[in-house]
Amino acid sequence: MSNATPTLSEKTIAIVKSTAPVLQEGGEALTRHFYERMFRVNPEVSALFNASNQAGGTQQRALAGAICAFAANVDNLEVLGAAVERIAQKHAGLRILPQHYPIVGENLLASIGEVLSLPEDHEIITAWSEAYGFLANILIGRENQIYREQEAEKNGWTGFKNFKIIRKVAESDVIDSFYLAPQDGAQVPSYKPGQYITVRVPDAKTGTTMRNYSLSSAPTPEHFRISVKAEPNGSVSNLLHGKAVSDVIEVGPPCGEFFLDLSEHHERPLVLLSAGVGITPLLAMLESSIIAQPQRKIVFVHGSLHGKTHAFADHVRKIAAQNENVTAHMRYSEPSEEDIAAKRFDSTGFIDAELIESLVPGRDCDYFFCGPKPFMTAIYRQLLAWGIPGGQVHFEFFGPREELVGG
């Protein structure tokens, strides 16, 4: 693999861009080959990847999309700025280090050659080697900056640190909250509402495995709180649900580019839309916003199947009752007779444009949303149809980021 250079040559840019249609056609096959090859040749890096996402194909599709986007925009990297930041934040959460990049690069270049039947000295391989080195250099620089910022933060650290579960609360039939404090008695750093921490646990196959969990409350120096849904096949989520108070887990510092920037003061209302466990980062935003900007109009809309799967219902209603600028609306898609009798929800169905428009004073708002892909796709398409500027639309995927417009 060639060394990274400050800028890419015109020849390299032309060759990489010319491969974009080929990658669009067979990108997923290439990335599937890449992952299989890398885990076979370099099994030491398998702990850095989510086995469930690999099995389901979401990781391969996400990487294929990223590679295609890079190829198409290699001469206009400003377009990729948000994607680079998102990748760097994810890498920082997993503690990706400079020495990991040659492993990925060598396997990616070999996979391109093997899938496309190209010799090692083919100009496409040479061009992608230069392009990968260029991109790796950008990511390494940003990730090193994140690590320095984490360590410089009050009560900050880098890598993984032992945390003790000091409290565990069942928020619904499927979601438990875990209050985590450093085992050494220290306090925790602040974070931007919407960010996540990485939990690392033992794994029989890879030694350890990691998952990201959104911080589900406004920052406090005493502890972190994460609220975790027990997924049917979720090895880490079910392991956590089996943990007890005083148990110890490894935790990485807060990361993530999806957050509410409290340094910005807008006249526009803040609209927080969630479904299922997607409520967790938005709850941190709600709690933080009413503290930092108590006069701002906030509309909080949450969708759930029914009352037994609905987490934080009483908490959100209490916040709305105590803050006249907060409007809360709960919509159930499958309410039980008990839910109906107890009036636990405000409307039936799925969150849609008609509901949102009935709650907001106008479309000119800042929108944050998180939840299952069908929910997010519907919301995103609606906001596009309304002509909401991209700077006012913010969303978070739990897992590899996928396309919301198509499909």
Can you give a write-up of this model?
By secondary structure, this protein is an alpha/beta fold. 42% of the residues lie in helices and 18% in strands. It is built from 13 helices and twelve strands. Strands 4-3-6-1-2-5 form a six-stranded antiparallel beta sheet, covered by helices on one side. Strand 11, helix 13 (373-386) and strand 12 (393-396) form a beta-alpha-beta unit. The two termini are 36 Å apart.
What's a concise summary of this model?
This protein has 407 residues and is an alpha/beta fold.
Strand content: 15-25%
Shape: globular
In round numbers, the mean pLDDT is 91
Q: Which structural class best describes the helix and strand composition?
A: alpha/beta
Number of strands: 12
| Portion of residues within helices | 40-55%
Task: Tell me the layout of helices and strands.
Blueprint: H1 10-18, H2 20-41, H3 51-56, H4 58-72, H5 81-94, H6 100-116, H7 123-152, E1 161-170, E2 175-182, E3 196-203, E4 207-214, E5 224-229, H8 235-241, E6 248-251, E7 270-275, H9 279-292, E8 298-304, H10 313-322, E9 326-332, H11 337-342, E10 347-348, H12 353-359, E11 366-370, H13 373-386, E12 393-396
Parallel strand pairs: 7-8, 7-11, 8-9, 9-10, 11-12
Antiparallel strand pairs: 1-2, 1-6, 2-5, 3-4, 3-6
Helix pairs in contact: 1-7, 2-4, 2-6, 5-7, 6-7
